[in-house]
Design goal:
110 residues; alpha/beta; 39% helix; globular; Thioredoxin; transport; disulfide bond
């Protein structure tokens, strides 16, 4: 299961890690429910290499607005504790793995 966080915890979610992925979702979002199993599997695959967390946009509307999350599911990618990229929409596990492998290679090269 992805680590659930709140808006208050969001500011420190990527601190101390090279790469962190935060999933923005809502309970009513069908594509979000499809995305969750892929993210949970990737969380296991990247154990210790990439940190994963999830944030419910309905409970954290101000933060979603601040980050301009207009569509969900959305992933915010943190590099070295700072939001660096946003990935919007449903993506199959294999596509996310390929993307995350690339991002992991980038942060380890920094």
């Amino acid at each position: 299961m992805l680590e659930p966080i709140t808006g208050a915890e969001f500011e420190t979610v990527g601190v101390g890690t090279d790469l962190t992925v935060v999933d923005f979702w809502a309970d009513w979002c069908g594509p979000c429910k499809m995305q969750t199993p892929a993210l949970e599997a990737l969380d296991e695959d990247y154990d210790g290499k990439i940190k994963f967390a999830s944030l419910d946009v309905d409970q954290n509307k101000e933060l979603a607005e601040k980050l301009q999350i207009m569509s969900i599911p959305a992933l915010v990618i943190f590099k070295h504790g700072k939001p660096a990229e946003k990935v919007v929409g449903f993506h199959p596990q294999a596509a996310l793995k390929k993307y995350l492998d690339q991002k992991l290679a980038e942060v380890t090269a920094d």
